[in-house]
Amino acid sequence: MFELIIRKANLPDGRTGIDIAVENGKIAAIEHQIEASAGTEINATGRLVTPPFIDPHFHMDATLSLGLPRMNISGTLLEGISLWGELRPSLTQEALVERALRYCDLAVSQGLLAIRSHVDTSDPRLITVEALVAVREKVKPYIDLQLVAFPQDGYYRAEGGVESLNRALDMGVDIVGGIPHFERTMDDGRASVEALCRIAADRGLPVDMHCDETDDPMSRHIETLAAQTMRFGLQGRVAGSHLTSMHSMDNYYVSKLIPLMAEAEINVIPNPLINIMLQGRHDTYPKRRGMTRVRELMDAGLNVSFGHDCVMDPWYSMGSGDMLEVGHMAIHVAQMAGIADKKTVFDALTVNSAKTMGLEGYGMMKGCNADFVVLQAADPIEALRLKPTRLWVIRRGKLIAQSKPRIAELFLEGRPTKIDSGRDYVPMTPS
């Protein structure tokens, strides 16, 4: 007898009618028609059962702070940074923890059970670090939370930035961050990449840098990051986030850059919602939208995963903690509308992000952690189209969130009385 069996599940890889048995928080069996009973059984009725969604790029210290101390009137990245600087002196650990925990509640309801959050280290008080380290411990039973030491005002540019980042790492932050394009000069940016990669190598830590989040095609710190990755033997442990300048670079240079990134095994994290909102602000028309070259990077074999980045904070007034919203936008902006494209986008919200974060035991195979989301959709393509209800969210075999199906009632003569927008409106598509 198992602890839990999910029956009649559709899996992201296309398998249908699958039963999933759970014992001791792990997948004990995953096959057609498991002949056994369980303490709890869930009938997925041909719905998609996926491993949980993952956000590899977020700012939990700023989330839900929208309107404090004022709104971002221009809607630009630079005003957002300035606004955060205005808010920072008034931050308290208690308020930071409260907002972060509220966001984590929202994340669980959306089936988002792993998050990598950048934590601003520019304030020497480091109350952001203290708060997020405390939150990481509180949510450990239900969310894998990784923290990045992020020198928001510049590693060299901010007074005391070098010391503050090192102190944050000493306090238990997991990953070395950076923002080379925000240093005073290109050369300072290059030097910061080298210094931060050296720190990561010395401490045995991964690297995740905000890199070239600009429309300037001459912002080429990703080239330096790839080179320093190989210099310090950090292959596979480094992520370049945003990389929006690649949107504006000429094709010849990119033809040299992408193979260098592939050689360094760089993980790439575009943030579709934020990138298209904040970039191209100096353009009239034609207007650039600023997301990096997703298809070309994927085609070159790089691991690409999508981040939400912000939810209701100085940079982004929208957001819902729904990674399918992120993927939905990525399909449009990257023009990845084909069937295979959409499956690839779904992977960028799940398995690719698990690789970026180095998560162990993630997946839908025997022996993996029993972490699942049951969606009111039949397959990944439908999930990305509908952004459907999360019917059940399960962590290590235990139910941690549940929602009722979204069913509309109609009162129209001669027409159906109820509509399931997913199940009742699925065109036949080739596999």
Question: What can you see in these coordinates?
Answer:
This protein starts with a strand and ends in a 12-residue tail after the last strand. The chain has two domains: 2-51 and 363-425, Urease, subunit C, domain 1 (Roll), CATH 2.30.40; 53-357, Metal-dependent hydrolases (TIM Barrel). It is built from 13 helices and 17 strands. The chain has helices at residues 77-87, 93-109, 127-138, 161-170, 186-203, 221-231, 251-263, 272-278, 294-299, 323-333, 339-348, 351-357, 380-386, and strands at residues 2-10, 18-23, 26-32, 38-50, 53-58, 112-120, 144-150, 175-178, 207-211, 238-242, 267-269, 303-304, 372-375, 390-395, 398-402, 408-409, 418-419. It is globular and about 65 Å long. The longest helix is centred in the middle third of the chain and has 18 residues, at 186-203. The protein is α/β, with parallel strands linked by helices. This is Cytosine deaminase. One of its GO terms (molecular function) is metal ion binding. It holds the Pfam family Amidohydro_3. Its EC number is 3.5.4.1.
Keywords:
about 425 residues; alpha/beta; Urease, subunit C, domain 1; TIM Barrel; 2 domains; 8-stranded parallel β-sheet; 7-stranded mixed β-sheet; 17 strands
Question: What is the element layout, followed by pairings?
Answer:
Layout: E1 2-10, E2 18-23, E3 26-32, E4 38-50, E5 53-58, H1 77-87, H2 93-109, E6 112-120, H3 127-138, E7 144-150, H4 161-170, E8 175-178, H5 186-203, E9 207-211, H6 221-231, E10 238-242, H7 251-263, E11 267-269, H8 272-278, H9 294-299, E12 303-304, H10 323-333, H11 339-348, H12 351-357, E13 372-375, H13 380-386, E14 390-395, E15 398-402, E16 408-409, E17 418-419
Parallel strand pairs: 1-4, 5-6, 6-7, 7-8, 8-9, 9-10, 10-11, 11-12
Antiparallel strand pairs: 1-2, 2-3, 4-13, 13-14, 14-15, 16-17
Helix pairs in contact: 2-3, 5-6, 6-7, 10-11
